[in-house]
């Protein structure tokens, strides 16, 4: 009981420190200042970053890369991108490369066939199949060449038609311009003629001299007039 009633010096020291800190906090609060606290990083507000700008409308197909074949045959993205970049010239290159590859194989199989004395059925079938494949591939090469020539001709015809259409569209403008110039020329000629007529009429009026007018005045002598009045 005696030990419980006694106060330890540590508890008294803790209370004094706590009282001093509370007093300092209240004083700082009254002065409008915050107590010196350990430095901490301010909390950064999270902002919404729009990665899809401008946002696509509902139902758009801009982000769709794969078509019907790619979705069903599970082509990779690299195959799809390369296939979209290929053209008929690439197909022509591939067909010619196949022909050269088959020709090389045919030469190899024929040399092997000579080693067997020309009595190997398997090699003969391979050579025959390769020759038939070369014939089909050659026909494909001719078809691609013909298609490319037709495309070049179509492009040339399109350019010619565009030039001809542009020329036809400009023809009415040229004719309209010529008609306007002719109208201006006629109006100027008319005004020039009217001015010349006005000048001519003005010069004629200036050249006319005044004609003399005869005025007859009867003068009677005063003596004769008096005699005549006496007789009457």
TrEMBL record:
Comp. bias regions, Polar residues: 1-11
Basic and acidic residues: bias regions: 12-32, 190-203
Keywords assigned by UniProt, alphabetized: Coiled coil
Coiled coil is among the record's keywords: yes
The UniProt record lists the keyword Acetylation: no
Region Disordered, annotated ranges: 1-62, 190-212
Positions in coiled-coil regions: 113-140
Name this protein carries in UniProt: Prophage terminase small subunit
Source species: Yersinia enterocolitica
């Amino acid at each position: 009981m005696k030990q419980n009633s006694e106060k330890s010096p540590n508890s008294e020291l803790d209370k004094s420190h706590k009282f001093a800190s509370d007093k300092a906090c209240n004083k700082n609060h009254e002065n409008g200042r915050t107590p010196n606290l350990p430095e901490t990083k301010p909390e950064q507000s999270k902002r919404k970053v729009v990665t899809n700008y401008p946002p696509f409308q509902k139902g758009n197909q801009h982000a769709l890369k794969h078509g019907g074949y790619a979705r069903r045959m599970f082509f990779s993205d690299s195959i799809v991108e390369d296939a979209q970049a290929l053209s008929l010239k690439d197909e022509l290159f591939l067909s010619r490369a196949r022909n050269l590859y088959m020709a090389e194989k045919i030469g190899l199989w024929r040399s092997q066939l000579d080693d067997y004395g020309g009595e190997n059925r398997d090699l003969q079938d391979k050579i025959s199949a390769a020759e038939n494949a070369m014939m089909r591939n050659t026909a494909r090469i001719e078809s691609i060449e013909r298609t490319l020539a037709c495309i070049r001709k179509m492009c040339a015809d399109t350019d010619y038609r565009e030039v001809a259409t542009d020329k036809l569209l400009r023809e009415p403008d040229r004719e309209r311009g010529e008609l306007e110039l002719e109208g201006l020329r006629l109006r100027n000629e008319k005004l020039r003629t009217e001015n010349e007529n006005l000048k001519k009429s003005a010069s004629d009026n200036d050249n006319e001299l005044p004609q003399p007018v005869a005025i007859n005045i009867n003068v009677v002598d005063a003596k004769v007039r008096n005699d005549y009045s006496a007789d009457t």
